[in-house]
Amino acid sequence: MSRAALFILTASILVASLLLFGNAFAKDTSPLSRKIAPIVSTDWLQQNSQSKNLVILDVRTKEEYAEGHIPGAVNVPFLVPVSEWIVLKDDLLLEVPEQAALFSTIGSCGIKDDSPVVVVTSAPKPGEPPYPIANATRVAFTLIYAGVPNVAILDGGHTKWQKENKSVTRDSVSPTAVTFKGKLRKSMLVSKEYVKEHLGKALVIDARDADVYFGATIEPFANKPGHISKAKSLPTPWMWNSKDWTYKDPKTLKSMAAGVIGKEKPAEIIAYCGVGGYGSSMWFVLSEVLGYKNVKLYDGSAQEWAKHYDMVPYRWD
């Protein structure tokens, strides 16, 4: 084989590895023009971190980023109640920013509509809820909503990367800003009126903890116990391995979803939670990992619903 032919073959293999993502989740991607698996391993990112156009987006705090981060990672923190990724709107937490502000943020990261993006977060501290893991899916959801289809989550986050003694740096990254020209996928988000109108037609998934769904526990976000009428319970934290906060394997995730949704895929699924964090994780797994079609997020979630309508307590629907 000539050197030229060998070079072409090698280059083709490298490109294929980028597009197919030799990863357990690659075969379970969304039908939406994906060129990157929805969940990527630390080993994959280590091997492909220098790939052209790949953007590593670290959404941890500035302090965590400064202590050490994956080489080349851009830092745009996800902070509650307000940051570049979320806003307060009508007293509702975790709402999507206006288009101009959102597009400006995305462009400042050097992200184009065809950029492959890997979102990096950290594992929760012992005894704390896994909200940081949901932060990553919230950012991924927002990017996809803005028109960036090739978004992945780093499985296990920076915590796993660091435990494996992979390379970290304290050198900050200043990306070359671009003018982002995406197209909002407005159908991904639905209002309370839409949910009410589609109760009994669409399958509604409550992604909160089971005790919150049942009404035994009341979260501060919603002042009424229970869940939206006819909603099914599928707690988001069950999708993660609590030992290292990696995602459960696709086969297990598929079985969990089918156990609640049924073998026949519904025409429409609406996910919700307390404020839009766990709901975004449920959306991401159902839509991007498992390939369910027409999955939507009710962003107002229980915090909004409880202000206007009754919740159903002490019952499994």
Protein described:
The chain has two domains: 3-163, Oxidized Rhodanese, domain 1 (3-Layer(aba) Sandwich); 186-308, Oxidized Rhodanese, domain 1 (3-Layer(aba) Sandwich). The chain is 34% helix and 14% strand. It contains eleven helices and 14 strands. The strands form four sheets. Strands 1-7-6-2-3 form a five-stranded parallel β-sheet. It starts with a helix and ends in a 9-residue tail after the last helix.
Compact overview of the structure:
It is built from eleven helices and 14 strands.
Descriptive labels:
single chain, 317 residues, alpha/beta, Oxidized Rhodanese, domain 1, 2 domains, globular, disordered N terminus
Q: Major sheet, described briefly?
A: 5 strands, parallel
N→C terminal distance: 64 Å
Looking at the overall shape, the CATH architecture of the largest domain is: 3-Layer(aba) Sandwich
Secondary-structure element string = HEHEHEEEHEHEHEHEHEEEHEHEH
